Amino acid sequence: MNPKFFNSQILKTALAVIFPSMLLSACGETSPEVTSPDGRIKVGIQNSGNVLSYAVVTDGDTLILPSRLGVVADGLTPSKDAKVSVSHSKFDETWHQPWGENKEHRNHYNEMAYTLKDANLDFTVRVRAFDDGIAFRYEWKTAATDTVVVTDELTEFAFAVPATSWSIPGNFDTYELEYRQLPIERVDSANTPFTFQLESGKLVGSVHEAALYDYPEMTLRNKEERTLKASLAPLPDGVKAYVSAEFATPWRTIQIGEKPVDLINSSMILNLNEPSKIADTSWIKPQKYVGVWWGMHLGTMTWVMGPQHGATTENAIKYIDFAANNNLQGVLFEGWNEGWESWGGNQSFNYLKAYPDFNIDSIAAYAAKKGIELWAHNETGGNIPEYEAVLDSAFAYYKSLGIHTVKTGYAGGYKGGQFHHSQYGVRHYQKVVETAAKYQLMIDAHEPIKETGIRRTWPNMMTREGARGMEWNAWSEGNSAEYLCIIPFTRLLAGPMDYTPGIFDINYDRARSDAKRLAWNGPNEGCRIHTTVARQIANWVIIYSPLQMAADLIENYEGHDAFQFFRDFNADCDWSEALDGEIGKYIVVARRAGENYYLGAGTDAEARTVKVPLSFLKNGKEYEARIYADDTEGGDPTKVVISSRTVTASDILEIKMAATGGQAVTLTPR
Ligand code: NOJ
Ligand code: CA
Asked: Is the CB of residue 409 below 6 angstroms from any atom belonging to ligand 1?
């Protein structure tokens, strides 16, 4: 390790440049700066006439120049004679979660609370410095008002040095947008996770938020040059949030690593969330699932009842049988309930009534007999008032049917000028999670609010969409292989994604030969999957989701040798590590569930060979590696070349990937 990291004189000099007065006045416990446990990251706070700013120094170099802090609201302005107090603390704990990429996490940080206090107001900036990043939030208690009306947030991120970045535009209604790679000064608006890599190559980082409750999401707007400012989703009256007189905002976070995979391997976002509020989590179970779903997106089936209705009793039995015969646990049926005629219109769904050709009682009984979990699907079309009115009774009904999972959807504008990502939206999504917990239901949210680690506190909040998923391949120009190499370093830093992976019929040959293919949401012609089939398999490992779907029509898996990978895959993993990767170029991830390991690798539009040491395997053990590889010789993207060999922890696996390809490997102890 570079001895410079331990040279506190260099760190002090860098901070002195930023905050000369701060260091001059610093004396022991009142010094307004906090350092990560390994000493490499420092955050300082400056106060100039009650105008607060912060700066970040890493390894002696300034990363964030003095940048504004604060929230604009009546009752939150400290008086001139407000007293400053600063306190420091340390925290180091290892904790466990019922499921996740990793079941064990270390939460290790140093904390500084910087408080301004007068007769009416107690306003604190709480800062945490971890070895893998920094976070801060605002906490207040005011006697000036009962309700604090937040009209703006002043938080800024003034990048000190040139960096390139990957993000989607800031949009308060959707995350289903294309990623752009831009120098920071050319970013007009962005949503988070906002990932950056310094031009010097010295570090990578990502701006995001943690523990988003009762507050709008934070997007970023360019203020000037390389300074991005927080921009909160507004309510219809332009106010950003109405909150109580005593409140803590979500954390504003900057993950920091030396190499891109460090960001993926960080637990910082989860660590900033509170422990589980659900005492008995025994009913919360990661699982693999299939569903009547892809047919609707391809246009060979419909959600609405009619001659091509997907969710029929006959199809339900077929899908349940398929799940039972292939070591899968769950089955989803979209279009099971009445109301789909209104989708895109007045958006009025009946969450309690199945279409007459979907015999829900007999289907639920059959699923139970076969040991398969039936899922419920609730598309709301964005009609929140109607959904909230029946939430309790619908969830009680699903519970009575033995259902443990609900996939929700918000495909449509909210009523009354509300944004999906505003305080109104955040409150709604949270209400669904907490109501679901009452009925022992897990949630898979599509068109969700972004993940900010609340799955630690609400472990029934399993997975969500929140980016362009597989569906885009069915009715648009689709998702590129490069996109699939960007999301592990951006969207997936926030948490699990229900990408709905694993399409084997990548050219839609079966659908195209079907004359009854309906045009749905856009162009049908020219649509296809833009990767090889081996990469589709690898995505089951790469795109982490505790509820992992095999999204294709079951006919496309039946009799396909490569489906063995998903049969053997275990969605309930214990440990994960991103082993190698470059943002937008390639990614290699390994996971372990029990004694078995799964490895997934994927590349962009370039063919690539990556050497992966298998040192993560247990020493002294032999493993059978079953390899699902691209047809690099023949160049057929539909062909998966399957082979087996014996490997140990001292082996190096040479992964050869075709353009847009990938590789998946199961590693089973012999
Ligand atoms: C969009 C969701 O992402 C997709 O999975 C679902 O099939 C449709 N909405 C209909 O609910
Ligand atoms: Ca969607």
From this structure: yes
